[in-house]
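4.2 Preliminary Data

To establish feasibility before requesting continued support, the project team ran the inverse folding procedure on a target of 114 residues. The structure was first converted into the token representation described in Section 3, and no sequence information of any kind was made available to the design step. The complete token record follows.
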């Protein structure tokens, strides 16, 4: 089964992911936890909110890629100006909130193939 790390501080959205996505989910509520969970579980793909407490998503993307240069990370943001910055630091793609769950599934399938 595909392992997906989701870093999101909005707890209701985490609950939505749990209900809506049919993958093995690893959930993190802040940037520090996301980095820790990535190293512990080595997911197939990471979905990274860019506005996170403790450590922002841009910094976490950089640190994950330093740890694992082959990491597949998709940035998630409601802030359009952050999208290009996420791509600059190494995110594969950016998905803007709000999005359809079908869009998210397509991205997971696209980047989880080995």
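Position-by-position output of the design step:
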């Amino acid at each position: 089964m595909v392992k997906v790390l989701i870093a999101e501080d909005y707890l209701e959205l985490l609950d939505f992911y749990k209900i809506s996505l049919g993958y093995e989910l690893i959930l993190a509520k802040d940037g520090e936890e996301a980095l820790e969970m990535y190293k512990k579980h080595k997911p197939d793909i990471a979905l990274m909110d860019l506005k996170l407490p403790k450590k922002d998503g841009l910094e976490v993307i950089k640190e994950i890629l330093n740890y694992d240069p082959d990491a597949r990370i998709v940035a998630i943001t409601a802030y359009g100006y952050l999208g290009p910055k996420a791509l600059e630091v190494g995110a594969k793609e950016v998905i803007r909130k709000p999005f359809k769950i079908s869009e998210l599934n397509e991205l997971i399938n696209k980047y989880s193939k080995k």
